[in-house]
Design a protein that fits this description.
By secondary structure, this protein is α+β, with helices and mostly antiparallel strands. Among the domains are: about 115-250, Methionyl-trna Synthetase, domain 2 (Beta Complex), CATH 2.170.220.10; about 355-530, Isoleucyl-tRNA Synthetase, Domain 1 (Orthogonal Bundle); about 560-645, OB fold (Dihydrolipoamide Acetyltransferase, E2P). It has 18 helices and 27 strands. Strands 3-2-1-13-14 form a 5-stranded parallel β-sheet. A hairpin with an 8-residue loop joins β6 (about 140) and β7. α12 (about 375-405) crosses α14 (about 445-465).
Length: about 650
């Protein structure tokens, strides 16, 4: 039997999960794996938290914590988010485990020994203010391809292009905003140019069945010519490069993260009591199907870099498919964690059952293009489809069985004709038709197919009118409700990958232990069955209960703006304030007079480096005494991730010049 190894992109352990994460990579993978297991296929779902990289060190610096403290906290938070969403994994690991370090180092050395990794002298951005080399994510600037002004040195989040820091227009240090300078260094490069022919041959075999947007992007990058990619960084946080000459360098997070799929499987095998079991999943190329569920932003790594790494290594299974999803927007705007324009899973799960959220996110799943999640749609889909359609069909059928047939239904041994035969024919083919949709990653169509089956049941129920036939022909009523019961029993299996809690509740009510996909096609009821009194599966959503607070602009009038008087001042003196670690006392020359300012920048600037600098000052602000200092205005500075960055005029100007 072919083994199916399913992975979801390792969530980055520097924040909780939002609805875009779930709809993009984790819910589709969970639906797919649950379905495969119901088919009786040998499938496992592997994942874990990605715990290295610059974003984590930046957050740790900003919060005054160690990277380990950050990843420990978010590893548990992310696990809880998955639990709330009923996302199941056969193993959920983390990339800071010794087992992962060992696996990543072995992988590096294998590629190095085979000549697919080479040391190269390079020019790297250095921040003279921070006094350190800047890893790619510490460099921000304008994307040369799409003009996005907040592109990172490794990738543009707007157009998805793979970047090098030196390609950015107007580069700046992500920490302090200083323009960095190029200095000589060295790094180890994955020789993608050398691996390109193998990669092209591999991708050509996927043209017929990979998503067009995935294979199209991958082949377009091949046509443009793959450049060798630096896979090491100057950091203290990460997997150390296993070479003596590479002290102080670690593996780039996007090199070591996908290796986490392998180390997590190794951990799973150890937990199973068979440490070598992982090899049957990663090294049996004839009998393992490897499927990576990811978001659009990860296509370059999973369709190019990771397969190249696997091809270079030589011992591992290659991805059979990379069914990447597009982006899920929120109320018409792109989800942005920096603007707090997101719905966090923990918040949403406190208000609604997991199945409500799974249902709505599947309906909004961005499978072939960006899609939009709105609370109006959420309410409408839950109320009209889940409550009025699916829930109503289950409830009305089981309620009639309890009320008019004393809770007993069946037997049902012949297909009959007419409407009966039509419904039972739907039961016979449903597992195969739905299975084909899930096997081909059409999860939205699959859910809609289930809802149409339920709608067919409701139409049948209405047409057969058991509330009338019970008075005229009780046998007709028994048969009608038996046919409906057969459809519900099948639905209890088909709905499980999507709505696992609902499936469990239905099975309990109908006293069924059926959890076999193929057997769900069998409509027969050999003997009479006594069911339990039904409970209402779903309740209507009466109102949108969650509020999203985006950081929006509060506009002022032009007349209000005209009241502001901003002048350029020159800092004549700066000194620390005793007993106030964050405060500096500044003396500022405004041309016709000098004023005193109290500025909370002592953590970021030394007094000596401020003397002579020109700054914009709001001079008609009401004076305020701060720590005994009468502050006579306010200096203006940019807020870069919590750090103040001083603003300067392009050229030196006369102190007291107005800002217009």
């Amino acid at each position: 039997m072919k083994k199916i190894l399913v992975t979801s992109a390792l969530p980055y352990a520097n924040g909780p999960l939002h609805i875009g994460h779930i709809a993009g990579a984790y819910l589709p993978a969970d639906i797919y794996t649950r379905y495969q297991k119901l088919r009786g296929r040998n499938a496992i779902h592997i994942c874990g938290t990605d715990e290295h990289g610059v974003a984590i060190t930046i957050r740790a610096d900003r919060e005054g914590k160690t990277p380990k403290e950050i990843v420990d906290f978010y590893h548990e938070r992310i696990k809880e988010d998955f639990r709330l969403m009923r996302i199941e994994f056969d193993n959920f690991s983390r990339t800071t485990l010794p087992l992962h370090y060992e696996t990543a180092k072995e992988f590096f050395l294998r590629l190095y020994e085979k000549g697919y990794i080479s040391k190269k002298e390079t020019e790297q951005y250095y921040c003279p203010n921070c006094k350190r080399f800047l890893p790619d994510r510490y460099v921000e600037g304008t994307c040369p391809y799409c003009g996005y002004e907040k592109a990172r040195g490794d990738q543009c989040d707007n157009c998805g292009r793979w970047l090098e820091p030196k390609e950015l227009i107007n580069p700046r240090c992500a920490i302090c905003g200083t323009t960095p300078e190029l200095r000589k260094s060295f790094h180890y490069y994955l020789l993608l140019s050398k691996l390109a022919p193998k990669l092209k041959a591999y991708l050509d075999t996927k043209k017929s069945y990979w998503k067009p947007e995935v294979i199209g992007l991958a082949l377009s990058w091949i046509r443009e010519g793959l450049k060798d990619r630096a896979i090491t960084r100057d950091l203290s946080w990460g997997v150390p490069v296993p070479l003596k000459e590479a002290q102080g360098k670690v593996l780039y997070v996007w090199f070591d993260a996908p290796i986490g799929y392998i180390s997590s499987t190794k951990e799973w095998a150890i937990k199973k009591g068979d440490p070598d079991l992982w090899k049957e999943w990663w090294q049996d190329k004839e009998n393992t199907k490897l499927v990576h569920f990811i978001g659009k932003d990860n296509i370059v790594f999973h369709a190019l870099v990771w397969p190249s790494m696997l091809l270079g290594h030589g011992d591992y299974v290659l991805p059979d498919n990379v069914p990447a999803n597009y982006y899920l927007n929120l109320e018409g705007s792109k989800i942005s964690t920096s603007r707090n324009w997101a719905i966090w899973i923990g918040d949403l799960a406190r208000l609604y059952p997991a199945d409500y959220i799974r249902f709505a996110l599947t309906y909004s799943m961005p499978e072939t293009k960006d899609s939009d999640f709105t609370f109006a749609d959420f309410k409408e889909r839950i109320n009209n489809e889940l409550v009025n359609n699916f829930g109503n069909f289950v409830n009305r059928t089981l309620s009639f069985i309890v009320k008019y047939l004393k809770g007993r239904v069946g037997p049902l041994t012949d297909k009959g004709s007419g409407e009966d035969a039509h419904i039972l024919s739907l039961v016979e083919k449903a597992p195969y038709e739905l299975g084909n949709l899930i096997d081909t990653y059409n999860f939205r169509k699959g859910l809609k197919y289930i809802m149409e089956l339920s709608a067919s049941g409701n139409r049948y129920f209405d047409k057969m009118a058991p509330w009338i036939s019970r008075k005229q022909d009780l046998n007709r009523t028994k048969r009608t409700l038996s046919v409906c019961y057969a459809l519900i029993r099948t639905l209890s299996v088909l709905i499980e990958p999507y709505l696992p809690d609902s499936a469990q509740k239905i099975r309990k009510m109908i006293k069924s232990n059926l959890r076999n996909w193929e057997k769900a096609a069998d409509w027969s009821i050999p003997t009479e069955i006594e069911i339990e009194r039904p409970e209402v599966l779903y309740k209507k959503v009466e109102e949108e209960k969650i509020e999203i607070k985006e950081e929006k602009m509060d506009y002022i009038t032009f007349d209000e703006f005209k009241k502001l008087i901003i002048k350029i001042g020159s800092i004549k003196n700066a000194e620390k304030v005793e007993g106030a670690d964050k405060l500096l006392k500044l003396t500022v020359d405004l041309g016709d007079k000098e004023i005193t300012l109290a500025a909370g920048i002592a953590e970021y600037y030394e007094p000596s480096e401020l003397i002579g600098k020109q700054i914009p000052v709001l001079v008609n602000l009401e004076p305020k005494k701060i720590r005994g200092i009468l502050s006579q205005g306010m200096m203006l500075a940019a807020d870069e991730k919590g750090r103040p960055i001083l603003l300067h005029p392009e050229k030196e100007v006369r102190p007291g010049s107005k800002v217009r």
